[in-house]
Amino acid sequence: MSVSIKTAHEIELMREAGHLLEKVHDGLIPYIKPGVSTKEIDRIGEEMIRSMGCIPNFLNYGGFPGSFCISLNDEVVHGIPSEDKIIQDGDLVKIDAGLIYKGYHSDAARTYAVGEVSNDARKLMDVTRECFFEGIKFAKAGNHLNDISAAIGNYAAKHRYGVVRDLVGHGIGTHLHEDPQIPNFPQRRRGVRLIPGMTLAIEPMINMGRADVEWLDDNWTVVTMDGSLSAHYENTILITDGEPEILTLTK
Ligand code: MG
Predict the structure, then answer these.
(1) CB–CB of 88/80 below 8 Å?
(2) 184 C-alpha vs ligand 1 centroid, how far in Å?
(3) 111: helix, coil or strand?
(4) C-alpha 189 to ligand 1 mean position (Å)
(5) Handedness of CA 182, 204, 14, 63 (dihedral sign)
(6) 68, 82, 103, 228: least surrounded by Cβ within 10 Å?
(7) Distance CA 12, CA 140 (A)
(8) How far is ligand 1, taken at its centre, from the CA of residue 169, in Å?
């Protein structure tokens, strides 16, 4: 699949898909608290998405049994919503969400601290978010994909964190996952040249300990191999003639 360049009309739809997803994320914040199950959050979020006339794009994607990926603490991504997973004080909760608006996908992830968390956990969250913003400084027409990847990876490395290598960001549009793949660490190749109209989901996944991850027996949940905490931050962005536009974050 080659990298798709969106038309002005498609960009308008992608923008709306992004803005609606931002609303979903914001709407879930009050529910991310002790005593609430991850299934409950999934249910509330799915209802929000459907009430907007949109479709949750993660549901049944490759057989995924939820509308949201909700991952706790040492779970990196792809946590399956469950009645048995109850949010506790001190948890790091990662909510990864996506929706389809008029055939166009958006994808964004946030990490939340519930109640009191350690300064180290707080710093991991902050640096992961900063990694995204370091990366998109280079998300400009004429640059190459690796400029983004290298900026993310180098910033995380400066803080001595492990950058997950087994999972990467991606192009996005009429499909949830389009070309190109966007690693969060420096590559030997420059990668594709960035062109206005490209829409990309950039999503650093950063571990407090080592980079290595493994899959649980449910075949979905990715956890850190050393049990260390992990954080995730993602937005869908648009490459323009100037600064990138963050479609899933307007404020
Ligand atoms: Mg994604």
Answers:
(1) no
(2) 12
(3) strand
(4) 22
(5) positive
(6) 103
(7) 19
(8) 6
For the whole prediction, is pTM greater than 0.90? Answer: yes
Ligand 1 centroid – CA 159 distance (Å): 23
User: How far is the centre of ligand 1, averaged over its atoms, from the C-alpha of 146 (Å)?
Assistant: 18
- DSSP per position, 127-141: HHHHHHHHHHTT-ST
Cα 185 off chain centre by: 16
Q: How far, in Å, is the centroid of ligand 1 from the Cα of 85?
A: 23
Distance (Å, rounded) from C-alpha 152 to C-alpha 132? 7
Q: How confident is the model at residue 123 (pLDDT cuts 50, 70, 90)?
A: very high
Question: Alpha helix (H) ranges present in 182-241?
Answer: none
The answer to whether 214 and 228 have CB atoms below 8 angstroms apart is: no
15-56 residue pLDDT tens: 999 999 999 999 999 999 999 999 999 999 999 999 999 999
The DSSP bridge partners found for residue 98 are: 107
For residue 77, how far is its CA from the centre of ligand 1 (angstroms)? 10
Instruction: Give me Rg for the CA atoms of the chain.
Output: 17
Q: How far is the CA of 16 from the centre of ligand 1 (A)?
A: 17
Query: What pLDDT score does 110 carry?
Result: 98
**How far apart are the CA of 83 and the centre of ligand 1, in A?**
24
Contacts of 161 by beta carbon, 8 Å cutoff, 6+ apart: 124, 127, 206, 207, 208
Q: Could you give the 3-state DSSP secondary structure of residue 189?
A: coil
**Mind listing the pLDDT tens digit for each residue in 210-250?**
999 999 999 999 999 999 999 999 999 999 999 999 999 99
Q: How far is the CA of 227 from the centre of ligand 1 (A)?
A: 23
Q: How far is the CA of 171 from the centre of ligand 1 (A)?
A: 9
